[in-house]
Amino acid sequence: DADVTQTPRNRITKTGKRIMLECSQTKGHDRMYWYRQDPGLGLRLIYYSFDVKDINKGEISDGYSVSRQAQAKFSLSLESAIPNQTALYFCATSEGGLYNEQFFGPGTRLTVL
Amino acid sequence: KNEVEQSPQNLTAQEGEFITINCSYSVGISALHWLQQHPGGGIVSLFMLSSGKKKHGRLIATINIQEKHSSLHITASHPRDSAVYICAVPNAGGTSYGKLTFGQGTILTVHP
Asked: Are the C-beta atoms of A33 and A102 separated by less than 8 Å?
């Protein structure tokens, strides 16, 4: 079984709808991250959490919110989806420390019409 | 200006060729990650290195901390190496501790 899982894997929705993307991990890591990937722009950090009680905005947090329900679960919500939020979304986890490897989920392809 | 720059952005090679992908960064760090993104979208970590060279199979990564430059080499390239290769550096200090800044990726296509 995969260490980092994301649901759903694909989602098509309409402008204005509320969407939740879920991430679960079995690696026992404290740190979890949400990224989005757009063609030509690379991966950009939306939110990150260094433990259950610590949640921080990344470089592109506007229009998104997160919830860290437990060490193993980190959810990303789009309260009112808009077309420019169409992207590939990745969850990742890591141990603490400066140089620790990040482990990525398989990604969620979100299309907002 | 991006803090992490990769070159080339696109690379096409014939099977068997030696491949080099470069990464330069402007932030002060002491380690760098190389990631591979498969055509299906999944991302896996290839290397994390803070000095010298690391080798895994046909993949070799080098880093020069003083010059703020790293290279990823693929020997005897194969079509299954076709992927996007991404370098990333951690942000040191303060609330950025442990976050990564990513390059834009290099799209590698290896033809049979």
From this structure: yes
Question: In what side-by-side order are the strands of the sheet with A65-70?
Answer: A4-7, A19-25, A73-78, A65-70
* CB neighbour list of residue B69: distance below 8 Å, 6 or more residues apart: B22, B23, B24, B25, B63
Q: For residue A2, give the 3-state DSSP assignment.
A: coil
Reported as a single tens digit per residue, the pLDDT across B27-81 is 767 688 999 998 877 899 999 888 899 999 999 999 998 888 999 999 999 999 9
Q: Does B92 touch chain A (CB under 8 A)?
A: yes
The ranges of chain A with pLDDT < 50 are none
- Token reading at A99: 């140089």
> What's the CA gap between B96 and B90, in Å, rounded?
8
Q: Name the one residue in this structure whose structure tokens are 């169409």.
A: A86
B66 near A CB under 8 A:
no
Chain B residues with beta carbon closer than 8 angstroms to that of A43: 86, 88, 100, 102
Q: Which of B44, B50, B86 sits opposite A42 (nearest CB)?
A: B86
- At residue B3 the predicted structure's pLDDT band, cuts being 50, 70 and 90, is confident
Nearest by CB to A94, which of B30, B98, B104?
A: B98
Q: Residue A66 and residue B81: Cα distance in Å, rounded?
A: 35
Distance CA B49, CA B70 (A): 9
Residue of chain B nearest A48, judged by CA positions: B99
